Amino acid sequence: MSLDQIVIDTLVVGAGQAGIAMSEHLTQQGVPHIVLERDRIAERWRSGRWDSLVANGPAWHDRFPNLEFNGLDPNTFACKDRVADYFEDYAKTFEAPIHVGVEVLSVERNQGKPGFAVQTSNGLVQAERVVVATGAFQRPVVPPIVPQDARVTQIHSADYRNPQQLPPGGVLVIGAGSSGVQIADELQRAGRQVHLSVGPHERPPRSYRDRDFCWWLGVLGEWDKAAPPLGREHVTIAVSGAHGGETIDFRRLAHQGIVLVGLTKSFDNGRVHFHKDLATNVERGDDSYLALLDAADAYVARTGVDLPEEPSAREMLPDPECIVRPILSLDLAESGISTIIWATGYATDYGWLHVDTFDDKGKPQHQRGVSSEPGIYFLGLPWLSRRGSSFIWGVWHDAKYIADHIATQRKYLAYRKTVQGQ
Ligand SMILES: Cc1cc2nc3c(=O)[nH]c(=O)nc-3n(C[C@H](O)[C@H](O)[C@H](O)COP(=O)(O)OP(=O)(O)OC[C@H]3O[C@@H](n4cnc5c(N)ncnc54)[C@H](O)[C@@H]3O)c2cc1C
Predict the structure, then answer these.
(1) 6-138+348-421: CATH number
(2) CA of 42 to the centre of ligand 1 (A)
(3) Is the pTM higher than 0.90?
(4) CB distance 388 to ligand 1 below 6 Å
(5) Do strands 123-132 and 7-13 pair parallel, antiparallel, or not at all (unpaired)?
(6) Where are the transmembrane segments (predicted)?
(7) Contact indicator for 377, 369 with CB cutoff of 8 Å
């Protein structure tokens, strides 16, 4: 269907979880809107992740408030296709006005009249407001360390699907956030020799005293923190729902056969060099783990809530050889490494958004998603309003705030029109 010459109050770009949450709240506020999605609903969950991925949070937590996962034990972890199905079903519950297969090519502020001209692959749309719900995980980031002509296959975790996809041989996984550790674990279990480059990270216990860490972060107010602690802004979090949900424990991974190395530093003559920070990074990860146990114990003591003690959670495995005597460089060919997987995260991509709301580093300027450019909104970004903002449950609450803001703006404009009309 051509969208040419459509005039709409609010146009939402992207129909992932952020766009769907936005559409639900705009519907409730009676704001006329459309959602444009270049692929399919929840495409990232459908095709943008590896085959065995399951949600990092249990099904009771990683969902929107108004719908449970049909037929799934709430304490289990939904596989990625179930998550995609969930969002498709969710969009149907309120007949979200989503147009799939339509890419937004550019957004320009109109001159001399309100709103924005939105050029799409299906025609030119006029919109009073634009909500950018394209998320934080748009463009895979690979640091320029190993040249493309080095004799090793290099892929980003966004392009990893399964062990069979890789050429025979060992694998160096760079990055030990949730993606890197899960991929390294899967490859090692599939019989590959795996090295894992571990930088600074946090690793909460999967569960403690009979409660999942998602529950603990909730009752301890951690999901609602407004900003990351100073100096920890770029620290990744290592969690997993794989195998029924296990705590990420780097010593266990090493005892299982994965060789840990420090942060990847440089490359020359076929050798990758690593920082001497492995032990420190693992210790700091332990600190974050133990801090959560301490906070949970203090919560139990304070509130008297009846949860079983779990002293074994504080027992640590002995340091493996790779931590005691760290490897500081590896000759890829000699080590039999045929593939490097960069699990080094994502960046945003706003090449199509031609409005004046970015700082000199290209970061959107906004307050809780309301941008410095009137009429432009951002949703789904990490720490948009709080720690939970880029996750499934958090984005729903941020969308509500933005919909309220839009509804209030519409009321102001309606008031002005009434006065002029008299
Ligand atoms: C590996 C991985 C695992 C994750 N696991 C979890 C988890 O278990 N639990 C959790 O809560 N969070 C998880 N997240 C974080 C987050 O929930 C997901 O990344 C989620 O997909 C983000 O949703 P979103 O709607 O913000 O963005 P996306 O899902 O990326 O959706 C944005 C949509 O916008 C579309 N789009 C982009 N540009 C345009 C354009 N110009 N025109 C039209 N459409 C466009 C894209 O096609 C896409 O469908 C995970 C993230 C990653 C990377």
Answers:
(1) 3.50.50.60
(2) 7
(3) yes
(4) no
(5) parallel
(6) none
(7) yes
